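Researcher: Please generate the 3D structure of the following complex. Treat every line as part of one assembly.
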Amino acid sequence: MQIFKKIKLFFFRELKLFYSKITDLFSNILFFFLSIFVFVFALGAEKALMQTIGVGIIWALLLLSSTLSIRRIYEDDFKNGSLIIMHMGGLSYELIAFLKIISHFIFVQIPFLISIPIAGLFFNININEIIVLIITFAIGSLILSCLGSISASMNLLNKTNFSIGSLIILLFSIPVIIFSVGIINSNNDFTSLLNLLFGIALIFVGISPWSSASCIKLAIKNK
Amino acid sequence: MLKFLINPSKFIKFSDLVFKPLVIFTLLVFIIGLFYVYKSPLDYQQGLTVKIMYVHVPSAYLAILIYAIMTIYSIIGLAFKMPFSFIINKAIAPIGAVFTLSCLISGSMWGKPMWGTWWVWDARLTSVAILFVVYLIIIFLYQTFENREVREKTVAIFILIGSINLPIIKFSVDWWNTLHQPASISKLSSPSIDISMLKPLLIMILAFSLIAVIIAILRIKAEILIRKSHL
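Model: Done. Output below.
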């Protein structure tokens, strides 16, 4: 079982890289809380208003602050040549992209889940809604990781316009936001909407390794 | 016979042949259409503002039609590896963006006196606004990548993914309760619009499409000449 050993080593390497750059994650979480404060200062701290718009604001800010960390998914490994060495070691680019998505999901998006209950306290959201918010964000962040993998691999190809990747992420995250906020606001059909969200996540998990792998191949060919 | 749709040199020959008669015909149709719009009756509720319809509906129709054409050409270009389809995609994307913008602007100018607001977040309006953003991202993507082949393929894939928006635009007035009215011309039963208003509307739709064709011919020819001089 050579391949499982390789995957294990890949995850250990990702973990080490993650711990060496852990301040990056903390500053992303700090960005999230600071933008919540900015929203509260801009809208005024009325309790009823905060309760009605709190969930939407938390989702939008989670989306924006998780796009901050996305540009770095492939860039360092591409520049120092690790991607080619991993490919020579027997991992296909599709598998590398899939593992990158999973490791980004585990190491970057899951720690964000800890900050959701604290953010919910600021907006006086009750505990049931916070639990639903955590479940939807756990699925929605997988979609965000997939989109981030696509846009990060597209950023390897261009050297002029870096914000176009964030534009594409924001465009495709519109259905994610519609379904996730719809789950929280509708009380009766919880499971059906959750299944729909999960279906979107599975579609993106299926598509994104192949598209990012083709972008990486083109980038390596044109290096 | 329809070879000019996929072959650049045939396209240039065909467009040289057809261009001057087309311009004269378009001018004629446009003047006749404007005359009919001038003679068309006022609405008993909306008054004079109903004439915004003769700009709004053709541009909305063309905005969707141009995106559908781009979708078909990106399928052809990706599946059969025809570079001419990418030329067409690059040439007609700004035309679609301009028609979408004119649809949005004329719609909000119509909405202010009738609905009392410039903009509502209703399903039809929002999905057309997303279509406009998609057009803009396509135009930006054409400026982004350095390698031409990569650029064309990426844009074609993006166009294919963005075409999910088209059925949402078409059926948004049926699926959700919207402030925007449901379709009155393109439905299976007889159109729910009077013949005295339908006639100028159809002539204006034809005139707008012919104008779009003329601009598209000019842009596609310019793009072909640029590529010939580069290669």
